[in-house]
Amino acid sequence: MNVFITGMTGGVGGLLTRKLLSRGVNVGGLVRRDDKRSELSADIALSRGELDWLILRPSLLLDEPGSGTVSLGPAEFHGQIAREDVAETLAELLHEPRIGRRILELDTGSTPIPDAVRANVRER
Ligand SMILES: NC(=O)c1ccc[n+]([C@@H]2O[C@H](COP(=O)([O-])OP(=O)(O)OC[C@H]3O[C@@H](n4cnc5c(N)ncnc54)[C@H](OP(=O)(O)O)[C@@H]3O)[C@@H](O)[C@H]2O)c1
Predict the structure, then answer these.
(1) Alpha-carbon Rg of the chain, whole angstroms?
(2) C-alpha span between 112 and 107 (Å, rounded)
(3) Closest residue (by CA) to atom 10 of ligand 1?
(4) Contact indicator for 77, 107 with CB cutoff of 8 Å
(5) Which intervals hold domain NAD(P)-binding (predicted)?
(6) Tell me: the pLDDT tens digits for 30-75?
(7) Does 109 have pLDDT greater than 60?
(8) Which atom of ligand 1 is nearest to the CA of 9?
(9) Residue 46 to residue 60: CA distance in whole angstroms
(10) Average pLDDT of the chain?
(11) Residue identifier of the C-alpha nearest atom 22 of ligand 1
């Protein structure tokens, strides 16, 4: 698997880069110069394009160790969540090809991340 991360210099992006490398994924990325496009515009453009896509919307991000458990679904409460749990969820989602063309929200929860990802699989 090859993954290109546009925000690999950021908090979640850096953690995700390390998690994917440890899974043997080839990771590349963009180091931004002065691009001021809004993230919402990027989401809209992505979801209308030809590429397979998945948008993950986490609640307030914290720099603390992850718990390994989350709440993941189309509509979640917006509490707070460790960046490490966000990165781990993204890594797990990237390895679940049956989830695509969806917007999912992520919050702290009690479901182990692999189970939370599998629970969102629906046959396309
Ligand atoms: N903070 C929160 O509580 C919170 C809550 C929900 C969602 N989010 C979202 O979760 C994501 C990760 O958060 P984070 O705190 O880990 O982010 P972060 O540390 O601020 O890192 C963001 C990364 O995205 C890059 N980036 C920003 N705008 C870009 C653009 N227009 N084009 C290309 N690259 C761009 C940054 O590049 P540079 O290094 O060049 O700036 C950086 O590598 C962000 O999208 C954030 O908006 C955050």
Answers:
(1) 14
(2) 12
(3) 58
(4) yes
(5) 42-97
(6) 767 655 455 555 666 666 667 788 899 999 999 999 999 999 999 9
(7) yes
(8) 43
(9) 23
(10) 87
(11) 10
43 token code pair: 């989401």
Beta bridge partners of 70: 108, 111
Distance, in Å, from the CA atom of 66 to the CA atom of 61, rounded to the nearest integer, reads 11
Q: How confident is the model at residue 27 (pLDDT cuts 50, 70, 90)?
A: confident
Paired with 4 in beta bridges are 28
Contact between residue 68 and residue 85 where contact means Cβ atoms under 8 Å apart: yes
91/101: higher pLDDT: 91
CA of 6 to the centre of ligand 1 (A): 9
Which pLDDT score, from 0 to 100, does residue 36 have?
A: 45
More confident residue, 7 or 99: 99
39 lines ligand 1 (CB under 6 A): yes
Place of tokens 């599998």: 118
Burial label for 53, CB within 10 Å (0-12, 13-18, 19+), is: middle
For residue 8, the 8-state DSSP code is: T
